[in-house]
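thought: user wants a sequence for this fold. calling inverse folding tool.
action: design(structure=
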């Protein structure tokens, strides 16, 4: 872990410099929305993630889709989703849902064997539906509120609760135990690009549909969180009527949450411990 932390220092330093140097358009009423009091900061991080995605991640994901045949990409995506079943098992258990945990156990065992290490999602075809669970949902299940909306460097849309939830999810992610460090980063990078490739069409939708992509992604993320936990801990963003502010209106209000990309998650695109269910990543996009 020490070597990995040392290896992250140059990346974090670059991120910090980019954040300081970055310039995002911030509406005059930023921070007045009760679910997004950190909007000024969040928009700067969003701008950094978007620039990182445009310059590096999206081109890599686009090239990936051109070089890797679709059946192979589906195999890789299923493989990563199958590994995430371990996180779902742990969190379903913590939520006191033995039936859901048992389904995830059955899915993992079936897909890891009959499905050739998860390459094929055989379990879904026999009625064992995927139900991804991560620690943020576990905290929400036990009544812990989401807290303010928060955009994380590289990981994208989040909240205070979801950001904290990344820590325990890291330890249930098999990728976190890959050694040596070089293979660890290569594996994470590959999963990062694979997830981003799955979101290319969704992020194009955001580009075309949203006057304010930041708000579009924020509202989609909050909507999905409410739908998964039940709505008690994440109040809907209030409608604003300031015609001079680009952050007014709610273009995503009636759209399905799945229409929004998941920062790269779940980011920028997200390739962290929330990979399989990550709510909307940054858009390019």
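)
observation: tool returned 285 residues.
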């Amino acid at each position: 872990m020490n070597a990995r932390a040392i290896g992250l220092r140059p990346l974090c330093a670059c991120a910090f410099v980019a954040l300081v140097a970055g310039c995002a358009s911030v509406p005059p009423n930023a921070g007045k929305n009760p679910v997004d009091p950190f909007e000024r900061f969040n928009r700067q991080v969003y701008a950094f993630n978007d620039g990182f995605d445009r310059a590096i991640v999206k081109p890599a994901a686009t090239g990936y889709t051109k070089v890797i045949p679709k059946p192979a990409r589906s195999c890789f995506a299923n493989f990563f989703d199958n590994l995430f079943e371990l996180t779902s098992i742990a969190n379903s258990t913590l939520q006191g849902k033995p039936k859901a945990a048992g389904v995830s156990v059955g899915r993992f065992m079936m897909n890891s064997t009959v499905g050739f290490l998860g390459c094929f999602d055989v379990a879904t075809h026999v009625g064992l539906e995927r139900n991804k669970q991560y620690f943020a949902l576990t905290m929400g299940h036990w009544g812990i509120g989401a807290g303010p909306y928060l955009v994380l460097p590289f990981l994208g849309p989040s909240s205070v609760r979801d950001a904290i939830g990344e820590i325990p999810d890291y330890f249930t992610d098999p990728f976190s135990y890959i050694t040596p460090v070089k293979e660890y980063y290569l594996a994470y990078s590959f999963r990062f690009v694979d997830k981003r490739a799955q979101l290319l069409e969704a992020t194009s939708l955001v580009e075309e549909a949203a006057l304010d992509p930041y708000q579009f992604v924020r509202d989609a993320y909050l909507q999905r969180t409410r739908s998964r936990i039940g709505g008690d801990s994440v109040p809907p963003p209030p409608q604003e009527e300031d015609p001079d502010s680009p952050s007014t209106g709610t273009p995503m209000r009636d759209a399905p949450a799945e229409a929004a990309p998941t920062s790269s998650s779940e980011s920028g695109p997200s390739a962290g411990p929330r990979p399989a269910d990550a709510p909307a990543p940054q858009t390019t996009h």
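thought: summarizing for user.
answer: Here is the designed sequence. Residues 39-67 form the longest helix (29 residues).
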